[in-house]
C-alpha cells in the first residue's frame, strides 16, 4: 500500500476522468480521482478536532496549557491545519457532487454551506457585541484609557453592524470564519477548474499567492486596516488541500515516501523549533545570527508567510508517513472526543470562539488564577466534546426517521465537510 | 550577572529611598512589586550618546514621545516619565543634570507622529528619545507593513537629528485582548529595533510578567488611580534601569 493510498483511501478513478478520451478529450490527461465512499478518513477528523481544541486554547489568555499548542514549537499553528483540512474535505465532498450531479448542483450545495457559515459568524458577532458592551460600561481603569478607544465604534452601532454583516468589521479572534466564507465562495470555481486541470489550478493558486506578496493585494476592513487573514494568500493552503483530496496526494506518494523528504522535514522542523525557542527563552537570542533574523522576521501570519506554509508541509509530510490510515489507535475511545469534534467542525469551531469569549469574561470577572485558568480550559474542551457528542446523536438518532433517504455524499457534515 | 547586580542595587536603593520619596512626592509603590527578570531590563544595543553625555558631564535631556498611555489622567507627576526622571536623579551622580520632557501625541498613529519629529527635535535637542508607540495603530488595525515603515522612518529621523532612541511598545492590556490584536505590532517594533540596533523597552512583556506573577492584577476594573500609579512607578524604575544598562555605565558613574 502506498503512502497516498493511506491519505486518500482506496482511490477510484473519478467518473469524468474515467471516460474514454474520445468523449472528453480534455479531461483525459490528468484524471482526478476520488476516494471510495463509505470509508471515512479518520485522520482528517482527528487533526481537525485537534486544531479546533488548539484554536480554542490559543484564543484564551496565555497559560500553562498554551504550552501544549503547536504554535510554540514552530512557525505554523492550528489555523493552517484547519484551513488545509477544510480544503481537503470540501473538495472531497463537493468534488464528488460535481462529478456526479454536475456543476450547478454542486454550486448550489456549496452556497448553502456558505450561508450556514455566514449565519454562524453573525451569531458569534452578536455575542461579541454583548461582551464588549458590558466591558465598555463596567471597565474604567485609568491605566487603560487609551486602549478603551477600541470601544469607540460602539458610538456608531448602525454603521458597525452593517459593516459586520458585510464581513468588513471583524473583531479579533473572529477572522477565521470570514476567511472560510470567502474560500468556500471560490470553491465552485476551484473545483470546476480542478476537474479538467488539477495541476494547472494549483499553479494558478501559487501564482495568486506570489502576486499577493509581490503587489501587496489585500481586502480592506472597517473602520480601517485589512483582513487579518488575507484570503488571497491563505487560498494557497485551501486549494492545496483540495488538490490533495482530488488525487494530488496519490501522485505525490513517491515524494512522500522518500527518506529524503522525511529528513528534510525533520531538519526543517528542528530548525524552526530552535528559532521559536529563542522567542520564549530570550537569553538564547544571542545565538541567532543577526543576518538570519533580519532576513526571516517578521514571520507574517496575515499573508501566510512561506516559512509558515513550508512548516505546515513538513508537519503534514511526517504525519502522513508515521500515522498510517489504518492505525488501530484511530478507533480507540481515547481519541474519540477529538474525532467527534473534528466531524462537526463548524459547530465546534463557533462554540470554541464563544467559549473563549466566555473564558475571558470569567477570568476577568471572577478570578484570574492559574487554577481557574486550567479549569476554564479543561471545561471548555469537555463542553466541546459534549456538544459534538450531542450533535452526532442528533444526526444518528433524532434526525434519522425523517432523513433516511438523504444521500450521504451530499451531506457536508458527514464527511466533516465544508 | 552584571544586570542582576544592578537590579539588586536598584532595588536596594529603591527600598532605601522609598521612605524619603514617600515623604517627598508620595510615591506609593513598594519596589518589591517591580521585580523583573534581568533579561527584560537589558539590551544588546547601546545608547552611545547617553554614555558620552554622562562621561562629559553634560546634562541628560530625555524626551518621551508617547500617546495617552504615557500619562495617568489627572496625576502627571506619577506617570512613568516623571518617575524615570526621579529615579535617574537618584541613581546618577548628584552633579548630573537630568531633565525629562514629555510630548503626548494623543490618538496619533506612528506615521502621524513620525511626521512631526524633525520639528520636535529641532526645538528640544534631546540626548535620548523614548518613543512609545503602537497602541493607536493596533486600535485602528493599521497594516503592519505600513506601521513598520512608519516606525523605521521615525527612528531614522530621530537618529539623524542626533539623538539616541529607545522604542517602547504597547501596554499589556488583558481586558482588551479579545478586541485589540497587539501581536503584529509588537513583532514589527522588535524588527525595527533589531534592524537599527536600538534598544526596545518591552513594556508589553514586562507588564505581562507582573500580571502573571501576581504583582499586579491588570484585570482589575478599579476606577481609582492607585493601580495606575503603582504600575507607572514600576515602569519608570524599569525604564531608568534599562537606560542606565544600555548606556553601559560603569558602577563608578552611578551614585550608589
How would you describe the overall organization of this protein?
The complex is a heterodimer of chains A (418) and B (256). Chain A has 418 residues and is an all-alpha fold. Chain A has one domain. Chain A is 64% helix and 1% strand. A two-stranded antiparallel ribbon of chain A has the order 1-2. The longest helix of chain A is centred in the N-terminal third of the chain and has 36 residues. The N terminus and C terminus of chain A are likely disordered. Chain B has 256 residues and is of the alpha/beta class. Chain B has a single domain, classed as SGNH hydrolase (Rossmann fold, 3-Layer(aba) Sandwich). Chain B contains 10 helices and 5 strands. Chain B has a 5-stranded parallel beta sheet with strand order 2-1-3-4-5, sandwiched between helices. In chain B, strand 1, helix 3 and strand 2 form a beta-alpha-beta unit. The two termini of chain B are 18 Å apart. The N terminus of chain B is likely disordered. Chains A and B meet through helix 5, helix 12 and helix 15 of A and helix 6, helix 7, helix 8, helix 9 and helix 10 of B.
**Average pLDDT score of chain A:** 82
Query: What is the fourth-level CATH superfamily of chain B?
Result: SGNH hydrolase
* Percentage of residues in strands of chain B: 5-15%
For this structure, what is the CATH class of chain B?
Answer: Alpha Beta
Low-confidence segments of chain A, ≥5 residues, pLDDT <50?
Answer: 1-31, 405-418
State the major sheet of chain B: 5 strands, parallel
Strand order of the largest sheet of chain A: 1-2
Shape of chain B: globular
Structural class of chain B: alpha/beta
Whole-number total of structural domains of chain B: 1
Stretches of chain B where pLDDT is under 50 for at least 5 consecutive residues are: 1-30
Number of separate structural domains of chain A: 1
Total helices of chain B: the number is 10
Secondary-structure blueprint:
The complex is a heterodimer of chains A (418) and B (256).
Chain A: H1 3-8, E1 11-13, H2 15-18, E2 33-35, H3 42-59, H4 78-101, H5 103-138, H6 157-165, H7 176-196, H8 198-215, H9 231-251, H10 253-257, H11 259-280, H12 290-296, H13 306-322, H14 336-343, H15 345-365, H16 370-398
Antiparallel strand pairs in A: 1-2
Chain B: H1 2-25, H2 48-55, E1 60-66, H3 80-91, E2 98-104, H4 110-114, H5 117-124, E3 128-132, H6 135-139, H7 144-160, E4 164-168, H8 183-195, E5 200-201, H9 203-213, H10 226-246
Parallel strand pairs in B: 1-2, 1-3, 3-4, 4-5
Helix pairs in contact in B: 3-10, 7-8
